[in-house]
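Researcher: Quick one. three chains, 521 residues in total.
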Amino acid sequence: MENSNTIVSMTEHAGYVWPSYGVAALVLIGLVVVSLRAFRKSRAQLKRLEAQMPGKSDEA
Amino acid sequence: MSAFAVLFRREMRLAMRQSTDSFMVIAFFVVAVVLFPFGVGPEPNMLARIGPGVIWVAALLAAMLSMDRMFMGDYEDGSLELLVLSPVPLELVVLVKVLTHWLTTGLPLIVTAPLLFVMMNVPEDIWPVLLMTLLLGTPVLSLLGSVGAALTLGARRGGVLLSLLVLPLLIPVLIFAVGAGDAVLYGAGAKANLMLLGGMLLGALALTPWVTAHALREAVA
Amino acid sequence: MLHYFANPTRFQRLSRRVEPWLLTAMLVCFGAGLYFALFSSPVDYQQGHTVRIMYIHVPAAWMALFCYTAMAVAAAVAMIWKHALADVAAKATAPIGAAFTFLALVTGSLWGKPMWGTWWVWDARLTSVLVLFFLYLGYMALRDAFDEPGRGARASAILVLVGFVNVPIIKFSVDWWNTLHQPSSVLRMDGPTIHADMLTPLFLMAAAFQFYYFWLVLVRIRRELMVNRTRALRHRQASG
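Model:
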């Protein structure tokens, strides 16, 4: 049954081990993508706004 | 104690004016339990097995129904701000509100419960224990519910949100209350469960008014 | 020291400097951890290859608890010392904690199917993690439920602390309930007797998750600070 230690030889429970790693990758990478996208969007918004109002004393 | 009496009389008068609320809670409680025989079949042993749990879960959900009204009226008409600013400790106000809520929700649930025990074929030996768990447990619902009600004041879809916040926190009460009935059936005696429920009640009584008062101050700030 | 780092500009500068290091450490740990987890760790004699799920499941469950604790500490700091940064940290942590909790549940279920023969068992640990997941959802829902963001921040801070006090009670009651209702047909899994060679991938993956959290939370905090600043500028623009 168990002749080798690596996952390449895994046949028996492959249907459970791979989805576990797959879901983990999907969730963790997905959260990073969502966070970075929100980060860029907010940064662009802030830049635009700061460009509109150059000086802090400029209140008009 | 006169402040307590005045507040209590005010709350009870307001609650009496809204007495249909209590009837709705009871009606919901009964209907929710009565649905179960249709869902799982009318076999008496099966009903007896699940009866205590079903009745307790239905009581939890029914108590949630009226929870969001605890501070809502006072929040909307501005009297909550007056209560916060008044020299009476806000914790006392919270305790009075919780007591009123229990008298208009928890107590009617306890009074109705025996009817449902009969309908769900719950063994008579565990009736007293189950009533005891309701007596100790329903005040905990009102106390923890007051925290949720204060936190969700002014929130969108506050009622649903309140249930989502409070129900997970009430799981221990449910476990020990239903466990008390099982313990009697297994011949183990329900003393440990009742003690734990009593401990939870005391803990909740000591901590929640303080937390709720804090949340109310934030809500009107 | 708290006050020193609570200054948003100083924090921005510092976190920009730290982030690349955290990112590198995370990638190194993930690389090494995945190598050991998938290729160079022994197969459990009882569980076979499914033991490899442990290298995701157990660190994810640790992170679920760690993130909740971090949120509670941040919420307490925000409440007592009124530090805006602590409040932002709590907000930035919540989705990461919820993600780890979700992973712990899904991988637990995927582990349970071959081990227990069913996708879900009301095992004490899985049940407690499920309740923890509800607490995360409640926090995020409450935080989002108000038109005025400050109100949501203060209310959800109280909720986290109430939940934090409750977590041990819930854990205790679920353990107790579980021993009472232990289904007899279910194969008991007291965890594999942990082989020393299994500890390497386990700790590497735990470290990777930990670095992942710190890196991502810094990015998310900086984003929240920018959002707050944008809101303040808009406000000034409208009133000026």
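Residues 184-188 of chain C have pLDDT under 50 and may be disordered.
Researcher: Thanks, that's what I needed.
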